[in-house]
Every structure is written in C-alpha cells, then in structure tokens.
Amino acid sequence: MIGNSIIKLNNVDIFQQAHLVLSNVDLHVDKGDFVWLIGQTGSGKSSLLKVIYGDLGIKNGTGHACGYELSKLPGRDVPYLRRKLGIVFQDFQLLTDRTIEQNLLFVMRATGWKDKKLMADRALDVLEKVGLRSKLKKMPHELSGGEQQRVVIARALLNDPEIILADEPTGNLDPETSEEIVLLLKQISQSGTAVLVATHDYHIIRAFPSRIIKCENGKVLEDAEI
Ligand SMILES: Nc1ncnc2c1ncn2[C@@H]1O[C@H](COP(=O)(O)OP(=O)(O)OP(=O)(O)O)[C@@H](O)[C@H]1O
User: Fold this and answer.
1) Residue 146 C-beta-side C-alpha neighbours within 13 Å
2) What is the pLDDT of residues 195-204, one digit of tens each?
3) Domain region containing 16
4) What pLDDT digit, counting tens, does each position of 155-190 carry?
5) Which ligand 1 atom is nearest residue 215's CA?
6) Residue 136 lies in a domain
C-alpha cells in the first residue's frame, strides 16, 4: 500500500483479447472508501474488476492494487494479491457439502494457514463480524439467502483484505435483505477496508448514497449519476 491508496490506475487501457473495452482509465480507491460501480451490461465492469484482481493484464498506463504493480505482475504473485482482496462474486458461492466452519477452514488452508487453533479462532471472528457466530456448524442449505451472502462476506474477510470487490452482491436477494447486506458492507468500509460494489440495483444505490463510478462508451466516469 502506498499511503492510503489501495487501487490506483493511471491512463490504463483494458482489452478483452483484441477488443479495447475501456480506455484511459483513471481510478483511485483509498483505504475505507465505499464505491458503487455501475454501467450497462457489456460496458466493462467485470473487465475492470478483473484487472484489479490480476485476472486481466493491462496494456498501457500504470496500475497498482494493494501494493502490487499490475503491469508487471508475474503469475506467481497473483495468489498473494488475491489474499489482499476479498472477493464476493455470484459465481463464487459456498461449498454446499460442508458446514460453514469447513467452508471457512477450506479457504484458510488454501491460503496458507496452518495453526488449527488460530484457524478456528479466525473462523469465529469473521462470523462474529457478520453476526452469524451461532451458525458455525450449520450447512449452507440451513441458512437463508441473506445469511449465506453474509457467510460469503465473512469468507472474504478471512485474510484481513485491504479491499472487498463485490459483483452484484444483492443479485438474488429481496430488497430488505439487500439493504442489510449493503449496510454490512458499509460498516466494513467504515472499519477501514475499502469496498467496491458492481451493481445494477439502483434502488440500493439510492438507499445508500456514495461515490459512483460508471463504465460508459469505453470510459470510466467519476462522480457519475445513476
Ligand atoms: N473473455 C472474453 N473474451 C472476449 N471478449 C470479452 C470477454 N469477456 C468480456 N468480453 C467483452 O468485453 C466487453 C465488456 O464485458 P464485461 O463482462 O466487462 O461487461 P460488464 O459491464 O461486466 O457486463 P455485465 O453487467 O453483463 O456483467 C463486452 O463487449 C464483452 O463481450
């Protein structure tokens, strides 16, 4: 991290194969920021998130995410970058054949945790943060959709990330549950972890006004309106 800067893209061009998706992207996200990312289907939101989590390289310009230089990111560093990012994506759901605790331990093992006592404590710690300490031994299907999404957020917090990237985190939830999830993400940002949320849910953006960036016509616009 350079000072309070978590994400810093300067004049970056983002390609999907030969197709220029977004050009001259300037984006700064600092510690504790809460940012909405909007834009029509196909406008480049996922491509922008992919650049930030090291899944898509940048061709021109310079970019940093959590202290890693994105234009020169060797493949071996990608897992280390990912540990500094908490990912809450719809296609990255809980393993349905394991308890909540086992789901959390699975991710910890995969990211290098070894000490069983520390792992058990951390699992309880993150569940406490999302208000679900009592669900440790439950199976995912025993939880509501909103509770499952809270566990996904707890899982994203395991390695104490500098930023949470969330792609449509309220996509499958009713309005009231959606508000609870966004309130939780807001609280997380207030405790110092930046949060970047891609969404089409304008109702929720109106309910929680915050900085909005928008992918439109091949550009990323700052201080955008819905
Ligand atoms: N793997 C890929 N190969 C080639 N082109 C791609 C690939 N992924 C996305 N694209 C193209 O890049 C552009 C931006 O897509 P992207 O998925 O970033 O948009 P999006 O704003 O996230 O859309 P949505 O809201 O539907 O998720 C689109 O024109 C899409 O067709």
Assistant:
1) 15
2) 999 999 999 9
3) 5-221
4) 999 999 999 999 999 998 999 999 999 999 999 999
5) 21
6) yes
Please work out whether the CB of residue 43 comes within 6 Å of at least one atom of ligand 1: yes
**Any domain includes 226:** no
Answer whether 159 contacts ligand 1 (Cβ < 6 A): no
- The interface predicted TM-score of the complex, written ipTM, equals 0.96
The CATH number assigned to the domain holding 30 equals 3.40.50.300
Between the CA of 45 and the centroid of ligand 1 the distance, in Å, is: 8
Helical ranges in the chain per DSSP H: 45-52, 78-83, 100-110, 116-129, 145-157, 175-190, 202-207
- Per the prediction, the chain carries an average pLDDT of 95
Q: Does 18 sit in the ligand 1 pocket, CB within 6 Å?
A: no
Tell how far the Cα of 198 is from the centroid of ligand 1, in angstroms.
Answer: 13
Ligand 1, atom 31, residue with closest C-alpha: 42
Atom of ligand 1 at shortest range from CA of 48: 18
pTM listed for this prediction: 0.95
Dist CA 13 CA 62 (whole Å) = 9
Choose among 159, 158, 86: nearest CA to 127: 158
Number of domains making up the chain? 1
Residue 104 within a domain = yes
Does residue 115 belong to any structural domain of this protein? yes
**Whether residue 214 has its Cβ less than 6 Å from ligand 1:** no
